[in-house]
Design a protein that fits this description.
single chain; alpha/beta
């Protein structure tokens, strides 16, 4: 039986029957502002507190901004700096964002080369930090980089192979266009990655209710319910009892 990697997020661990199966590469999909980056950060932070090394590789925001946003949202996480200082939590990737921006007008072969170069840098960072838990934020940057669907699919499969060969368990964020479950369209990533977790923003009167659904998770039984949650100072927390999510 494969070992489970607890996310430390009670609602999610309950929905996936105790944690992510070790070695799974999981896409965390949601609209802009749905909490993807914060959810992925909490996964690494909770594991860092248990002495498990994690790498957050950002393709969109500077490391300092990732840390500042996490501290603003999770004010009860008092030892973020400590986990960074002791090497259990590493945030990297600002220079990669600028490289990708500068390559926006390159031809297809240049874009494919850049994709491979970024993957190599991620692999190098994983090795140097000895991380066993990894976040890549965001797959959408790769998707904008590689316009040809077939090339994107093949390069994405290569990324998955690299992560599996490095024996890491990962969350890779992905932006989708709709916050409605009924209007959700399956993305190519839904067929490539071992797990798909979707964060919805469901309209209700004059507000939106954030909800979580596990579309798939290889290697384990999981809930098929859509469960509401809220981002609090102490992390991602369910609105209902976690006992009711299976």
């Amino acid at each position: 039986m494969r070992q489970r990697i607890n996310t430390g997020i009670s609602i999610l661990d309950k929905m996936i029957n105790g944690g992510i199966p070790e070695g799974n590469q999981v896409a965390l999909a949601g609209t802009a502002g749905s909490g993807k980056t914060l959810t992925a950060f909490e996964f690494l932070y909770n594991n860092a507190k248990e002495g498990k090394k994690g790498l957050f590789f950002s393709l969109e925001e500077a490391p300092e901004q990732i840390i500042e946003n996490a501290k603003d949202a999770f004010t009860d996480f008092k030892d973020i700096d400590k986990q960074i200082a002791n090497g259990n939590l590493k945030i990297e990737g600002a220079d990669i964002k600028e490289t990708i921006r500068g390559a926006g007008n390159g031809d297809e072969s240049q874009m494919n080369y850049l994709f491979g170069s970024v993957v190599n840098q991620i692999a190098s960072s994983i090795k140097s930090t000895q991380a066993t838990r990894v976040v890549i934020d965001s797959l959408t940057t790769f998707k904008l980089l590689i316009r040809d669907p077939l090339a994107y699919r093949m390069l994405s499969l290569n990324l998955v192979d690299v992560l599996k060969n490095l024996n890491v368990t990962s969350m890779l964020t992905l932006e989708i266009q709709t916050g409605s479950r009924e209007r959700l369209k399956y993305q190519p990533e839904f067929f490539i990655y071992d797990g798909i977790i979707v964060l919805y923003a469901i309209p209700e009167e004059r507000s939106r209710i954030q909800s979580l659904e596990v579309l798939k998770m290889r290697g384990t039984k999981h809930s098929f319910k859509t469960v509401p949650y809220v981002v609090t100072s102490s992390g991602i927390n369910p609105i209902i009892s976690v006992e009711n999510v299976l």
